[in-house]
Predict the structure of N-(5'-phosphoribosyl)anthranilate isomerase.
Amino acid sequence: MKVKICGITDLETALASVEHGADALGFVFADSKRRITIDRAKEIIGVLPKDLLKIGVFVDEQREMIERIVDETGINVIQLHGNESPADCASFSIPVIKALSIESANDLLKVDEYECDYLLLDSPKGKYRGGNGVAFDWGLLADQKVEGKKVILAGGLTCENVGGAIQLVQPYMVDVSSGVETDGKKDKEKIKGFINEVTKEEGK
Ligand SMILES: O=C(O)c1ccccc1NCC(=O)[C@H](O)[C@H](O)COP(=O)(O)O
């Protein structure tokens, strides 16, 4: 089971996440309290391991801007978290994650429209397009399995609930942001605890 820690804004948290076993780090280039500048992302990504997934999160961003950020920072996966179409998602030269908001079984019908490398299934609720710390009904995914896609489960995951979520959904990767923060800042002990819980669940 792979783990993505999203909303990285400083090097210390990035390195601690890698040390504790994160497979992917997310950098938000969209309207968010976790928005990062191109220069800061470049500085952090420049010292991270080559094989780590460094994911740029975008919401309905212009293609030219996404390509510029990829070129300048070393981002190696693009996460499209807005209303991007299947055609938008298919047109990049590096792997793409399409985020879909899941509120009802109907929303899962969209899954088959996208041919991208990964699908991130998240809660629709909150102030921003993502990173709101709100879970959706994971039971929908247990009832209606997503076949043949790499599913990333996101939205309101915490150390306390990630084990149960994995048992229910069996995703390819779990993604967390708010659940590893204290007072709005990334908390290294929570990151360690979250990854430990995922590892524990895998060992069962
Ligand atoms: O994290 C943000 O602030 C954000 C803002 C705008 C669009 C997407 C954003 N995050 C995308 C992610 O992949 C988050 O990790 C995901 O939504 C889960 O967040 P959380 O519920 O806080 O764990």
